[in-house]
Fold:
Amino acid sequence: MLNRRTLFGATAAAASFVTAAMKGRKANAKILSHDFEPRGTVGRLERLPKLDLQSSEDFLTTFRVLVNGDMTKMARARADELIIAKGLDPNAESTVEEALEVLGDDPIIGSYFQSWNSAQQQMWKNIRDEIYANADAYLAEMEAADKSGPGTLELNPGIVPDWAKYEIHQQPGGYVGDPFAGHIYHYGTNDFYMGANDQDSIHVGLAGLIPIPRDKQINRIHETGTGCGQMAVALKERFPDAEVWGTDIGAPMVRYAHMRAVDLGVDVNFAQRLAEDSKFPDNHFDIITNYLQYHECPAESSRAHIREAFRTLRPGGVFYPIDFFTGLLVPPRTAFDKMYYWWHHRWNVEVWYEEYASLDFAAEMEKVGFEVSKRRSGPRVSKQRADNLSLERAPYVTGRKPV
Ligand SMILES: C[S@@+](CC[C@H](N)C(=O)[O-])C[C@H]1O[C@@H](n2cnc3c(N)ncnc32)[C@H](O)[C@@H]1O
Structure:
């Protein structure tokens, strides 16, 4: 396997691959069709096409490790100092207004947030600039994959509601407004995961911990909000005999997901559909899951999806949604945390974050008829740098009562 850190070896290997292709020997069609993309793949990851782009992404990844680690500790310590200086308790419950009053104008806390912001904006820009510089080729590649298998692709451009038309977490064009949203999201989030997900390890780990129905019947699986389809692919790999569907509101997301699954040779069906209006029959699926969907849609959409999951899950099936606060993580309550989530809402365009954090998922699920069981210990899904990620805490496991 190539490792991008062994640059000379990798470049030489890619070059000899192309040379072999030119001589008409067996070659990777992707390399043949992309003169702008000579750097091949590492495991599941198609390498970024240029070394300088890779270098700047590597820098941003490293910088994010620093911001999420030591700089966060520094900002928290500074917040404690300021709160204590006001005669208040930093661990006490706070409103956003109270938090901003004490912390809002502090330059140390401000530079922490600005560092986070600059890395985020640069991350999207780098990737997008590269894609747009070669837009025709990237589009042609996607168009060719649209009609290829394994797996199917269904697009329904008319379904996108206004609430989805935001540039969530500052991603240019958001999930629905840029034809390359899937490419941008995939490489951007590799940076977000600080190197821990380059091989989809987080998604593979999450797919691996989803509990199976008691009767062990797993014929059909649905992942909503599938994004680039990483978990849907991992689910198909875990349950090769099941029919797996990945759906998402964004056409560019499912197009990219489909293209990637075709590349990987994994048979998953992708469709542009709303989670809350999935179009699947009653009692259809044995497992329904999603990952990081709910904090990116209105609370009402999440509630509607929980109802839809109950309708489309068969009795005895398992519903396993995963997001920041669907499981054991406690929604923000102290001043620094309130400011942190407010900041993401206001400046990182996490439009739905605050109303999402106010939802009681266990109660919502019970309301529609699910049996809810809370898992007590948070499994580790990635050994690499997982300590920096709070995403993989165990969510609620919910099931439909068998009849
Ligand atoms: C943060 S991304 C997560 C994507 C993917 N699950 C992953 O693991 O990277 C959220 C995804 O959920 C999709 N989404 C959000 N609300 C949705 C809804 N109500 N119906 C369908 N897709 C939705 C977005 O379009 C986006 O692709």
Notes: Residues 175, 203, 224-227, 230-231, 248-250, 253, 274-276, 291-293, 296-297, 301, 305 surround S-adenosylmethionine (CB under 6 Å). The two ends are 49 Å apart (CA to CA). Residues 1-37, 376-393 have pLDDT under 50 and may be disordered.
